[in-house]
Design a protein that fits this description.
This protein has a single domain, classed as Vaccinia Virus protein VP39 (Rossmann fold, 3-Layer(aba) Sandwich). Helix content is 29%, strand content 22%. It contains eight helices and eleven strands. Helix 1 packs parallel to helix 5 and helix 7 packs across helix 8. It starts with a helix and ends in a 6-residue tail after the last strand. It holds the Pfam family Methyltransf_12.
């Protein structure tokens, strides 16, 4: 596979980064005026994430760093990693203004182990909307294992692969229109919008994306030598993934307006690298 997906997706995220940083949805100003403010994503994660005070963590695909900063405010020593230099520019500016000592590293996820100098972490964190940008879930799982010290833990919450199969252009019913399982070739989209409220008009609109089945994700982590310690499916997701069919609830989480029991919208997987593992 060529690296066209990296070039196209990076251009897409570079263009959106300053728009996201200026939007109300990311609440950058609240981070600067409220020293204990946390992102809605990390607030949702806290009950399962538990106490991370004193841990050394890395946030993969950190975008503009609001979740990274939130984890640092919970006591972790954080590093953020992303392939978009424009996103990292916003992340560094936010951390500097907030007085947080966070290192941000520019790298493709698959090169994270070398980009971080072989460092190993107590916590690898991945937030919502990340895995769809990666062509191989097996390579991702091996990367996670390489970043964890023995006894270290992975925490990921992401869009549920079943949600990712639903064709959002059908507003009258749920229609499976996209692959559930990982495919060799990407799904190619051209979307001039973004998931925050904005009047901005974008030029870099083409993206390459992949879905990864739940079984593929879990199996990849097991093959990488990790032990699954938690697996939860949620009935909500932090954006209006299916316009016209969702209602916003607590914590800016969206759920299906009708029959929310019919479709999982996000999931959390927790895994640990066994003590003594190389």
């Amino acid at each position: 596979m060529t690296d066209d997906y990296l070039r196209l997706n990076r251009a897409n995220w570079d263009e959106r980064a300053p728009v996201h940083a200026a939007s109300r949805d990311y609440a950058v100003q609240r981070f600067l005026t409220e020293p204990d403010f946390l992102s809605e994503v990390v607030r949702f994660d806290r009950p399962l994430l538990g106490d991370i005070d004193g841990l050394r963590g890395v946030h993969l695909q950190c975008h503009i760093g609001t979740d990274t900063l939130s984890l640092a405010r919970l006591g972790a020593t954080m590093t953020g990693l992303d392939f978009s230099p424009a996103s990292l520019a916003q992340a560094r500016l936010l951390a500097e203004k907030a007085g947080a000592g966070i290192d941000f590293v520019e790298s493709n996820v698959y090169d994270a182990v070398s980009a971080l100098g072989g460092a190993q972490f107590d916590l690898v964190y991945t937030g919502i909307g990340a895995l769809c940008w990666l062509p191989s879930i097996e390579r991702w799982a091996r990367t996670v294992a390489g970043l964890l010290r023995p006894g270290g833990q992975l925490f990921i919450r992401d869009s549920h692969p079943m949600l990712c199969t639903i064709d959002e252009t059908h507003t009258e019913r749920l229609v499976v229109g996209y692959p559930y399982f990982e495919t060799p070739e990407p799904m190619v989209f051209s979307d001039g919008g973004t998931y925050v409220e904005t009047d901005a008009e974008f030029v870099q609109t083409t993206t390459h994306e992949w879905n990864h089945g739940f079984g593929e994700i879990v199996t990849a982590l097991l093959r990488a030598g990790l032990s699954i310690t938690g697996l939860t499916e949620h009935r909500s997701v932090p954006w209006e993934a299916l316009p016209g069919k969702m209602t916003r609830g607590e914590g800016d989480e969206w759920h299906l307006t009708e029959h929310p029991e019919r479709l999982p919208l996000s999931f959390t997987v927790q895994a640990r690298k066994p003590p003594g593992a190389s």
